[in-house]
């Protein structure tokens, strides 16, 4: 019968305990009797409780007199008892030497507690089971805290998912989307199943991918804890919206980066209002400047007329006045021509009158136009112009591009400054013209808007209407090229660079063959180029044309699939970040149409993971943009087009 309870466990009758176990039990009872934080007791091989410590009495609610001699299954629910769960625990302990788990257990009063349970088999020196040692710890408080935390996290998740005014989602450390809320669905138009797992750079337009903005923002968030940015972002359908983005780096307790939280607001409406306000301000400034610029020549013209009236027979005076009148009329004509050009460009009425010309002759005309202003400001002009280049362009418009850049450099460089004009062949068929100066420079905040209509840089200029650079941009684009600006900031000068696909590399200015290394012509393979960057697509198409290919071009993914259906290309070079249909899906569809077509991915992303993803979409090769001519030829040769 059970003995009295107290500081020592109540012992089960000695006849129920093997001599081996009884010999070792006495010392153990003395050690665990007063332990209160753990329920510690021993059982015989059948699971009958042999003793009971103070912790067991406190934790389970039974006195030793009430529980010693009973089966330990009393601590389990009826369902657990019916499924023989207690017996299974002993079987596992017998087989493995130890059983451990966490789960709900029952106290004497019927209440439940979350228990950490360990049952250890006790074996004799002969290896036979003599009984079990069971240790139980109450972890209810921790369990409830975990459940409360889980419920709190679930409520927070539901809250975030229901927010519709903000796109809120998680990224993994590499920038892949891990979650997606209602706001993200509304703003970016993707369903969770379409976007989770993809890299968040899919939301960025090509011009930001070219400068690696997505990865730059992640690096900034890691460095500073958060990164904020405003700019154009791309929806699923290819349309753009003006987004305010905050990216926050997330770390675990050990300070290991676990990913990023990204919050995006659609500020397109605010941006539109700001643009309208800014356009209104620029228009007002333009009208005031126009009035000033048109009024300036009137004063010397009126004074010149008065001098002629007063001294009609003075040949020296009349000759000098005539020169003044000619300059002022030329200035007014230049202003009016610029205004008319902008009007024609805006209305799409400018047509280029291309012809084959010597580059040097066109640049000479441009320098001659800008020379008076350069001399007026006492600048030096350094020239670095490639010899013997023949181009196909509108000579008047190309001269206008260069003269506007030279005049702009002269106006924004303090007297006695230095201007440099450089014109070289950048790549096959591509002309690079740059105009640099050591003038007042351009702050980073203004470099994006410097080509906007009526923009006049830092503080405006005493000369001109602020449309010269806008003309440069539009005329360069009409030639299939573009213009960029770089500056170290205020006081650090500027450099404007124009790239134009207009060089006729096989001819000199006289029309005779130019000396050059022989180029091995490739066979007449059919090549389709698809890129939403029109300049990039057109220039690449020109490369394949010059290599003897039969080419077609598309400017988005859907158009690429449509052209491929009828063109049946041997090679397809696809940009991966196209609107309407990205390069991955376009590749899959083209592969279904033409299984033998060689598909080549063109991307600014070139990690092993990026290459694996393009390969999974069916691409045969993956080239980093801008693709090198030798790499393009290597692919054509490798797949048998030579």
Automatic annotation (TrEMBL):
Q: Which residues form the PAS domain?
A: 40-97, 152-225
Q: Does the keyword RNA-binding apply?
A: no
Which reaction(s) does the protein catalyse, per the Swiss-Prot or TrEMBL entry? ATP + protein L-histidine = ADP + protein N-phospho-L-histidine
Residue ranges of every copy of the Response regulatory domain listed in the record: 526-640
Question: Which residues carry the post-translational modification 4-aspartylphosphate, per the record?
Answer: 575
Give its E.C. classification number: 2.7.13.3
* Gene3D superfamilies to which the protein is assigned, alphabetical: 1.10.287.130, 3.40.50.2300, Histidine kinase-like ATPase, C-terminal domain, PAS domain
Domain PAC, by residue range, is: 99-151, 227-279
What keyword terms does UniProt attach to this protein? Kinase, Phosphoprotein, Transferase
UniProt xrefs under Pfam families: HATPase_c, HisKA, PAS_4, PAS_9, Response_reg
- Using the record's annotation, list all stretches that form the Histidine kinase domain: 289-504
InterPro entries reported in the protein's UniProt record? CheY-like_superfamily, HATPase_C_sf, HATPase_dom, His_kinase_dom, HisK_dim/P_dom, HisK_dim/P_sf, PAC, PAS
Tell me the protein's name: histidine kinase
**What is the species of this protein?**
Luteolibacter rhizosphaerae
